């Protein structure tokens, strides 16, 4: 299989469906007649066991009829590299899920290749499908996932960029990983680290009292767990909030990170930054 070519097809189809959700309705309606209980018998293919049967397909049709169009995604090579890290890891080790064999998270893999803060990131994974249409259907029907988290990522308007990578999978034949971001910059993390090093050297030349003040500000972390007063996004069961304040150049940078744990076990992270006079 030419995984690169298929990833391109999936990218193009995903953008078409984001801009016109009704595009997939006729395809899904046609599938309804091939269900027998919870087994899908598509012509020319092996029977497929599902968890919800025709109900999940009909529910998706109803969703698509109401879903408003969202903007197309821009392809980002750095996100593709992050997706590649995970796809090859999953495939080689026969694994599933969003945690790597090295215990890496989506956030950590994306940050290996660039910067995404402030903003939001997410990840979808498709297993066992070998056509662009089947991959897209798997993600938007989201059979067996009560929160429909993959569908939510698929149509998330905050996401502006995506990288996709497909690889052979030891257990499921094929795996495709999608990494999304609202504002990703390839190599941005390295540039950011360089700026931080310059700031560090500058601070070393400042007066002791100012250095201590900076240290106190840098250590000002406040964590709220399991929601508290924070509003949950749809499909989330809890949220962890972390607030960090950094004083730099006479300005106070207040960085708020929210990590949502979704009902399907995946996580979504949102980062915002507010700047005030120190």
Protein architecture, described:
There is one protein chain. The protein starts with a helix and ends with a strand. It has 278 residues and is an alpha+beta fold. A hairpin with a 3-residue loop joins β7 (161-169) and β8 (173-181). 38% of the residues lie in helices and 28% in strands. The protein has nine helices and 13 strands. The chain is globular, with a radius of gyration of 22 Å. The chain has an eight-stranded mixed β-sheet with strand order 4-7-8-6-13-12-11-10.
Walk across the major sheet and give the strand order: 4-7-8-6-13-12-11-10
* Low-confidence parts: 190-196, 212-228
Mean pLDDT across every amino acid position: 86
Helix content: 25-40%
- Discrete helix count: 9
Task: Give me the oligomer status.
Answer: single chain
- Ends distance: 57 Å
- The overall strand count is 13
Order of helices and strands: HHEEEHEHHEEHHEEEHHEEEE
Shape summary: globular
> Roughly what fraction of the amino acids lie in strands?
25-35%
Label the structural class.
alpha+beta
**How does the major sheet shape up?**
8 strands, mixed
Spatial extent as radius of gyration: 22 Å
Organism: Paramecium primaurelia
Biased composition (Basic and acidic residues): 99-114, 190-199, 206-216
Region (Disordered): 90-123, 186-244
Protein name: SCP domain-containing protein
């Amino acid at each position: 299989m030419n995984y690169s070519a298929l990833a391109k097809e999936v990218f193009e189809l995903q953008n078409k469906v984001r801009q016109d959700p009704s595009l997939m309705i006729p395809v899904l309606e046609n599938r309804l007649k091939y269900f027998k209980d919870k087994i899908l018998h598509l012509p020319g293919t092996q029977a497929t066991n599902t968890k919800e049967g025709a109900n999940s397909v009909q529910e998706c049709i109803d969703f698509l009829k109401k879903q408003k169009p969202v903007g197309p995604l821009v392809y980002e090579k750095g996100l593709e590299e992050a997706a590649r890290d995970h796809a090859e890891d999953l495939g080689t080790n026969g694994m599933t899920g969003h945690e790597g064999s090295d215990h890496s998270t989506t956030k950590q893999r994306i940050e290996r290749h660039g910067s995404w803060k402030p903003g939001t990131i997410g990840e979808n994974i498709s297993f066992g499908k070998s056509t662009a249409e089947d991959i897209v259907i798997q993600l938007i029907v989201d059979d067996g996932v009560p929160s429909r988290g993959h569908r939510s990522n698929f149509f998330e308007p905050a996401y502006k960029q995506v990288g996709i990578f497909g690889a052979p999978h030891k257990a499921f034949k094929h795996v495709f990983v999608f990494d999304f971001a609202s504002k990703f910059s390839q190599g941005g993390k390295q540039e950011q680290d360089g700026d931080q090093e310059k700031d560090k050297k500058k601070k070393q030349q400042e007066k002791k009292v100012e250095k201590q003040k900076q240290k106190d500000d840098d250590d000002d972390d406040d964590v709220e767990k399991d929601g508290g007063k924070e509003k949950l996004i749809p499909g989330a069961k809890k949220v962890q909030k972390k607030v960090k304040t950094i004083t730099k150049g006479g300005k106070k940078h207040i960085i708020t990170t929210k990590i949502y744990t979704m009902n399907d076990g995946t996580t979504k992270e949102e980062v915002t930054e507010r700047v005030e006079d120190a």
